[in-house]
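pls read this stuff:
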Amino acid sequence: MEISIKQQIMEAKREVALRERVYPKWIGTGRVTQGQADRQLTAMKAILATLEALERDQQTRIQPTLFGD
């Protein structure tokens, strides 16, 4: 099953929101440390940024130009 970049972006956004919501509780209960939470959230945000950049690049490549390039 193929998952489009748009769908991947939606899932990454959902995951970022979920982590932002649950990490404070998890830190409070000792499930993760502040450092772990920071690294994992930063990594997920980087993944999201990469996917969004790929989507922008993909859209740019398929846009027709006025000059026939």
User: Anything to note?
Assistant: The mean pLDDT is 92.
